[in-house]
Design a protein that fits this description.
This protein has helices at 2-7, 12-35, 45-48, 50-68, 72-96, 114-135, 141-167, 204-213, 237-246, 256-264, 269-275, 292-297, 311-326, 332-335, 359-368, 408-428, and strands at residues 176-180, 187-188, 192-199, 225-227, 230-231, 279-283, 301-308, 346-348, 372-373, 378-385, 435-440, 456-459, 468-470, 474-475. With 482 residues, it is of the alpha/beta class.
């Protein structure tokens, strides 16, 4: 054994350098993904920075230890493999990554990328073969060491450049932050309620199909009027939520901040409700699209210590996300994510749970709770759930299924099942007649530039009888006056 270690003394610098390169890639890659998409994540650097660092150090130690245990010839082969793999990862992640689509749960037609996959594999294979052929000449060993150190340094410098702007600005996502919680989501006022369900991407066409196939569903929505000729305003949630929060359109003829500041100076419909004694609660990831004076008074938007739950699964998903970019493109279909995976790791040190819009999560918590008349006598709630936004993860009975294994209409039926349980609980606690309820979508189905219309149903306080269908022209502009 000692002879093996003595024999390997002159190669250890090379082994250490290639192990360092692989370790630096394992550290740099997830940080690069995070920092270049930082606004898409709920967690800040302070909550997870040490996880990729630990992984990188672990890779360095394991890679070096494995190389040390080998004899001279085997060690050289091992170093070559580690170096070639590292170079391919570096080139793939920085130069060859195929941009497919944003991670929003939309279906990807992978067959359309077959040629690109083959081309990508061919390039990586050619790079690997060229490197292996060159490295068979041992006199190039020192160049391997220099190249590995150089690339490691390049990535560390790049990481510092990415990190510096965010180190002092991480206050927005620190351990103690404002979070939308489920506080009061199952509490209603004893005097009057305005409950607005925002069912994401619930297209009006889905409801029409359900009505045609199940006319008996009209009995479920006691007192509701279905506006069958309803028009949406935007194709994305952010602008739609801003319209619902303010009653005013953003026309894209200036900056978003200027528009928000302008409408914030106006007296809006929510001001009237607050002055009338209503307590506001906004259960949505898009609370930032409400003017700050409304988000500030939202009863469930509170300051709490924030943490990452289940760090093992979190780091696995973080590296899965990283692998989508840094591994060969042909593996993308097997690694692809919906974009919502990290939401389930959001955890807070509070008596309340952080609010998540996921259909199944809302259903599970609803089943464990019971709506009761508590808190302020008059309440207005915006309850935003995933609705029929792709991928479709529930069936018509609101049971979990594999992504997109059901149709949009089946998923829509499941969403109505969940909402129906909420309505049933309102009836059981005696608050149904006291409540003005609006079931609507932020926008309809959207894909490839095609705009469709959101569903819209309204139940005024004390209304009764089976669902009424009204064909009068209406739009989201009518929401605030309603």
């Amino acid at each position: 054994m000692l002879s093996i270690f003595k024999l390997r003394l002159k190669e250890r610098k090379t082994l250490l350098s290639v192990s360092l390169l692989l370790a630096v890639i394992c550290i740099y890659a997830p940080f690069e993904i995070y920092l270049t998409n930082i606004n898409e994540f709920w967690f800040g650097l302070s909550l997870f920075w040490w996880l990729p660092t630990v992984v990188g150090i672990g890779v360095m130690v394991i890679s070096t230890f494995m190389g040390v245990l080998l004899n001279n010839k085997s060690s050289y082969i091992y170093v070559t493999i580690v170096f070639v793999v590292s170079i391919c990862l570096y080139i793939q992640g920085n130069f060859l990554n195929l941009r497919i689509n944003v991670l929003n749960g939309s279906q990807i037609e992978w067959v359309e990328y077959k040629r690109q996959f083959i081309f990508n594999c061919a390039i990586l294979l050619m790079i690997a073969i060229i490197l292996i052929v060159l490295l068979r000449r041992k006199k190039l060993e020192k160049y391997v060491m220099y190249c590995a150190i150089f690339l490691s340094a390049i990535q560390m410098i790049s990481l510092l450049v990415l990190l510096i702007p965010h180190i002092d600005n991480d206050d927005e996502k620190v351990r103690y932050t404002r979070v939308v919680t489920d506080k009061g989501v199952y509490e209603v006022g004893s005097d009057s309620n305005i409950i607005v369900f925002i069912l994401d991407m619930f297209d009006d066409a889905y409801f029409k199909q359900i009505l045609d196939s199940e006319p008996e569903i009209k009995e479920k929505f006691d007192g509701f009027t279905y506006f069958s000729n309803f028009t949406g305003s935007y194709s994305t949630t952010n602008y739609s939520m801003a319209l619902l929060a303010t009653g005013k359109h953003f026309y894209n003829n200036g900056s978003w901040q200027d528009w928000l500041q302008s409408v914030s100076n106006d007296r809006l419909y929510l001001d009237e409700l607050l002055d009338d004694g209503y307590e506001l609660s906004v259960y949505s990831d898009f609370i930032g699209y409400f003017p700050s004076r409304f988000s500030d008074v939202s009863d469930n938007y509170i300051d709490v210590p924030l943490k990452i739950g289940n760090k093992t699964s979190f780091i696995c998903d973080l590296y899965r996300l990283t692998a989508i970019k840094y591994l060969p493109d042909i593996l993308k279909p097997y690694l692809w994510m919906t974009g919502t995976e990290f939401e389930k790791y959001k955890s807070i040190d509070s008596e309340y749970n952080s609010y998540t819009t996921e259909n199944l999560m809302f259903k599970e918590r609803l089943e464990k709770s019971e709506i009761a008349e508590e808190g302020n006598d008059k309440q207005i709630k915006f309850i935003h759930i995933t609705g029929t936004h792709y991928p479709y993860l529930i069936d018509e009975n609101a049971l979990e299924v594999d992504a997109d294994s059901v149709s949009a209409v089946q998923c829509a039926r499941g969403v109505l099942h969940i909402v129906g349980e909420y309505l049933d609980q309102l009836k059981r606690c005696g608050s149904y007649d006291k409540s003005n309820i609006i079931l609507m979508a932020d926008h309809g189905y959207y894909w490839d530039g095609v705009l469709t219309n959101p569903v819209y149903l309204v139940k005024p306080q004390n209304a009764s009888a089976a669902l009424v269908i009204n064909g009068v022209p209406a739009s989201q502009t009518d929401f605030a006056p309603t």
